[in-house]
Amino acid sequence: MSLTDSTSKLLPVLKKYFGYDSFRNQQEAIITSVLDKQDNLVIMPTGGGKSICFQLPALLFDGVTIVLSPLIALMKDQVDGLKANGIPAAYFNSSQSGEEQEHIIDQTVKGLLKLLYVAPESLAGLTNVLKEQYVSCIAVDEAHCISSWGHDFRPSYQQLGFIKKTLPNTPIIALTATADKATRQDIVNQLQIPNAQQFLTSFDRKNISLEVRPAHDRVGQILKFIARRPNESGIIYCLSRKSTENLVDKLRLKGIKATAYHAGLDFESRTKVQEDFIFDKTQIVCATVAFGMGIDKSNVRWVIHYNMPKNIEGYYQEIGRAGRDGLKARALLFHSYGDVMQLRKFAEGSANEEVQIAKLDRMKQFSEAPTCRRKILLSYFGEFLKKDCGNCDVCKNPPQFFDGTVIAQKILSTIVRIKEVEPIGVIIDVLRGAHNAGVLEKNYHQTIKTFGIGKDISWNDWQHYVIQLINQGYCEIAFHKNNVLRLTAFSKEVLFGNTKVLMSKPLKNEEKIVVEKEHKAKPIAENSLFERLRKLRYQISMEENIPAYLVFNDATLKELEAERPTSEEEFIQISGVGQRKMEVYGDLFIQEIKAFQDEKKAKKKRGSHTFNDTYELYKKGNSIEEIAKIRKLKPTTIFSHLAKLYVDGKDIDIYKYVDKKSVSQVVKAKKALKSPETLKPYFEYFEEKMEYSTIRLALSVIEKENL
To answer: Where is each HRDC domain found (predicted)?
Structure first.
């Protein structure tokens, strides 16, 4: 099937069942490939729409699509989400009785299911079903679990190679949010799908703001962070069970709804924590890395790493649990040397100790980098970002840079001359002209022309510069090849082109001053349309016993708030509204929107009447105090009325209440404060010496006269 032919066939299905009018990233190409019965490996960031890549084809295939999912506790939520969209689905795992499992098998054989979620450990119970007459496709979710190179190696996944032998003509689609080159190759090998088409979509999650802070007074910083974001859902990742529980105790003392999650809890307790979080009964979960995989909760607004993750893959996967709905989200990482040492101890003695430590070093380098953090993340996964992202702490508080092109050329030239077979340490030893055993034994001091060309730069400073080159994507570490440094597709642009490389100088300890700029999040108005729709969504979710985001996610509510559809024809046009959801929920949400608009019109009418009453009293020559007394309002409210009436063009002698000098002062304050939306910043700017009413009147003059 060509992409052109597929568009007319697939888009109606996409809208009917999932509520979207167009595909994202490479979804359409992937779906077309699956429908053509090709094997596929899909690397797509969390929230990028991986599930649709196998769920939509499942609707068009005759048989069932079996989805291998790692977490039993989350299968019910995934199946509930499909059912909410009108898609017949079920799950099969050890939590069910024998009778329930027989019923699921019977449904599958009769062709009554389109998707069946199964844990790898439960596949043995589906032996009679794993036949090509019943199964149309196999989807392996969280496929990085297959690989020993990956960050979440899981033996039960590594035994899935038998599927291709059992179902040789059935397409397999393996999906994960994070996999470097070595992991991708390992997944393909383990699943025995060597000819799989590989789709590597952009890893760039632009909506997530990235920030790293030193780990001093972590608890205090977290409490302030949460206080600025009341009612927002978040996850805090900790290194140990004990730290999750200790942090929960401290949060609860401040009245914050938080719960701990770790492997030490029994199955029922872990399931309850997950369900309470998914159903918005718990605001925050403090968890070890055991929490989060496969969670589809779309309204997680932030993720905090109390401790440093052991590698960039894990960090990227975990922060990806925030902002799945595409709205703004935050990722905050606390960097501690103590965490690094602890993680090194954990890695010691493991089967792939060298790889784990090398990846930990990259995580440490990410935390200490003076360059755009998003660039570092993307370059790690082989994606090059030409411009800084503007949405990380480094971009918002950038260090001072210099032209480091010559330094970059020296590093890259040495990597070339040494034939890309040495790690960072040896490259630096050659640049500095070291006469140690590692250099002398390989005769680098005599055969490499760049030997000793960087004697004037210290070893630590060279390391700082090499790491910056890696972070910017001009060279990379091959973890599966003894951590040697290799060139990338962009290296030639520096060596032979005109590409200029900007670098930052290493900061001394006394220069490392953290600039924290934390802006208080705008609270959602209690009676805003969004809040009313959110409450309606929650009420529906409780009645149907499904998570609120399965009704509609926050992005859909935001669009409903903006577009305010009042008919079914308008409602179905909203992104995220499919045919079934319109039929089931449409009337309820349309009624709420109409009620809100009616109340707003009535309030506006009352407000207009209120302003007119003040204006009539003003025209009769009453003073501010007299008007306030007659109307039983405060004088500041009357000043506010006069300011609004003046802007609206009424005949108000505004300079009777505010002088031109004050107006001029407020003009300067407005520029200095970059046009704040409230009066308080002005009040503080004038050191509380200018009255609120004077500021309000001055602003009305500025608005009316375009000053």
So the answer is: 523-603
Correct CATH for 401-506 of 1.10.3720.10, 3.40.50.970, 1.20.1290.10, 1.10.10.10:
1.10.10.10
Residue of 311, 267, 361, 25 lying closest to 147 (CA atoms): 311
CATH of range 524-599; options 3.60.10.10, 1.10.150.80, 3.40.309.10, 3.20.20.220? 1.10.150.80
- Alpha-carbon distance of 220 to 238, in angstroms, equals 16
What is the SS3 assignment for 199? strand
| pLDDT > 70: percent of the chain | 93
DSSP assignment of 579-593: HHHHHHHHHHHHHHH
> Residue 510 has what pLDDT?
36
Asked if 96 contacts 169 with a C-beta cutoff of 8 angstroms, the reply is: no
The residue count for the chain: 707
628-632: long-range pairs with CB below 8 Å, 24+: none
DSSP 3-state of 375: helix
Kindly state the tokens that stand for 203: 């890893």
End-to-end CA, the chain: 61
Ordered strands of the 135-140 beta sheet: 89-92, 115-118, 64-68, 135-140, 172-176, 40-43, 197-200
Q: What is the pLDDT, as a whole number, of residue 34?
A: 96
Per-residue confidence (pLDDT) for residue 147, from 0 to 100: 75
Total-model pTM: 0.63
Cβ neighbours around 342 below 10 Å, total: 15
pLDDT tens, 269-308?
A: 888 888 889 888 899 999 987 676 556 788 899 999 999 9
Phi, psi (deg, nearest 5) at residue 173? -120, 115
Cα separation, 285 vs 416, in Å, equals 48
Give residue 513's pLDDT.
38
Convert the pLDDT of each residue in 317-362 to its tens digit.
899 899 988 889 999 999 886 788 789 888 888 888 888 888 998 9
Q: How would residue 73 be classed by pLDDT, with cut points 50, 70 and 90?
A: low
Which residues have a Cβ under 8 Å from the Cβ of 238 and sit 6 or more positions away?
Answer: 244, 247, 286, 287, 288, 306, 307
Quick check: 124 pLDDT over 90?
no
Tokens encoding 347? 């890695």
Considering only CA atoms, give the Rg of the chain. 30
DSSP-assigned states of every residue in 434-455: --SHHHHTTTHHHH-TTTTTTT
> Which residues does 98 contact at the CB level (< 8 Å), separation at least 6?
none
Counting Cα atoms < 13 Å in the Cβ hemisphere of 672 gives 11
152, 144 contact by CB (below 8 A): yes
Q: Residue 90 has which token pair?
A: 């079920």
Residue 590 CA, distance from chain mean position:
30
CATH of 3-200, one of 1.10.274.10, 3.40.50.300, 2.60.120.10, 3.50.50.60: 3.40.50.300
**Domain locations along the chain:** 3-200, 208-381, 401-506, 524-599, 621-707
Specify the higher pLDDT residue, 48 or 27: 27
Average pLDDT of the residues of the chain = 87
CA gap 241, 244 in Å, rounded: 5
Residue 212 phi/psi, 5-degree rounding, is -125, 135
Convert the pLDDT of each residue in 500-528 to its tens digit: 999 988 755 433 434 344 444 455 555 78
